[in-house]
Amino acid sequence: MLETITPQPPDKIIQLSQMFRSDQRENKIDLGVGVYKDVQGHTPIMRAVKAAERRLWDEETTKTYTAIVGDGGFHKAMGNLVLGDSAAADRLSFAHTPGGTGAVRQILELIKTAAPDATLWLSDPTWPNHPAMANAVGIPVKTYAYFNSETRSVQFDNMMADLRMAEPGDVVLLHGCCHNPTGANLNKAQWGGLAMLLKERNLTPFVDIAYQGFGDGIDQDAYGVRLLAGKLPELLIAASCSKNFGIYRERCGLVITVSRDAGQARLTQGMLSRLNRLNFSFPPDHGARLVTMVLTDPALCADWQAELKGIRDGMAGLRCLLADALRAETGSDRYGFVAEHRGMFSRLGLTPEQVVTLREDYGVYMIGDSRVNIAGLSPERIKVLARAIVAVGG
Ligand code: LMR
User: In the chain, where are the structural domains located?
Assistant: First the structure.
């Protein structure tokens, strides 16, 4: 049987991480995988998460299974973090999943089951695992214009024109905030226009929100998803706790759906339970329990918010430093967009050849489309990076 297996295409992000790890150079710079690092290059355990972990160690008395879709306290706490009071509680259904990627996968399974003829519309570009997973589940994909590589900003009119061609019943995947890979985001007016179009054309929004709190603030980053929850009859959400709680390896994600009414929400809940059972049965619990403790204990929550703000401000500061250094090195403002973008990522607009030269000659690792993880930088390395970019002709 196994002899029928053919070589599989490597995932670009995972492959780059492996290459970085095996590079022996001391001055190498990792701007690849979307993992937050502090200025020492360390991915810390957040203070509130560590405190919750100590408490859990003391208080937890059993490791028996939770519910098939995870713990209700986690659903409530995360539902509140993502949606605030934008949708009535009885319209919500949940499924705790292994990571945000697990949540995306479960939603794709839900789409395949509930709307087998739907096409999934993805932004051009998007996270490479979006089309790969849709393909694995057997959902046809089309792309909508999103990023203008000349202006380095969202080409909203073209995006709307493309989405007008979607068939009623199609699903539109949107990045809730901190667009991956470009860092270019919709503004409030654009979210408003988009919500109207989705409603008029009977398109179902599917929001992937993996970086809430890394852009402009916890509530600010949820502006779009909350607007859609308030205005549309149905909404699919994949939320991740990997980045904003720094619990990557705990694999903690959540499906949230907004249904038309309470009766439909119960049916949706039943389907989400079944999909969890079929795919992995019970979700991992540890990360969710930490998140729930942090979000429901006022002191822990305040400390988490303060630390998250420090991370967010630090990344915004690095963006400004990099934009300034590139301005100084190039004598132009062509990288000014780096300071305007939000979240971990920006796409610099370098050619694939320049990306390879940066890696081979300068030990600078970025994804092949020139996506950089801003959090991989430290103030001391910024000048080195700016010089290297200019040296390769960027
Ligand atoms: C990324 O885009 O680098 C992150 O979302 C990590 C991943 O799983 O790809």
Answer: 10-45+301-391, 65-296
Q: Is the pLDDT of residue 40 over 90?
A: no
**How would you classify residue 246: left for phi > 0, otherwise alpha for psi between -120 and 50, otherwise beta?**
left
Query: Annotated catalytic, 191?
Result: no
Within 44-139, strands assigned E span 92-97, 120-124
386 pLDDT more than 90:
yes
**Residue 33 in contact with ligand 1 by CB distance below 6 A:** yes
In the predicted structure, residue 39 carries a pLDDT above the cut 90:
no
Confidence (pLDDT) at 392? 95
Reference 9, options 135, 108, 175; nearest CA is 135
CATH of domain 10-45+301-391: 3.90.1150.10
Catalytic residue among 127, 325, 386, 388: 127
pLDDT for 32 beyond 90: yes
For residue 375, give the DSSP letter: G
In the annotation, is 127 catalytic? Answer: yes
242-265: average pLDDT = 98
- The pTM assigned to this predicted structure is 0.96
Domain at 65-296: CATH architecture: 3-Layer(aba) Sandwich (3.40)
Query: Average pLDDT over the chain, rounded to whole?
Result: 97
Q: Which residue has a Cα nearest atom 6 of ligand 1?
A: 34
Catalytic residue among 52, 134, 243, 339: 243
Rounded to the nearest whole angstrom, what is the distance from the C-alpha of residue 13 to the centroid of ligand 1?
Answer: 7
Atom of ligand 1 nearest to the CA of 32: 3
Give the pairing of strands 153-154 and 29-30: unpaired
Mean pLDDT within 270-297: 98
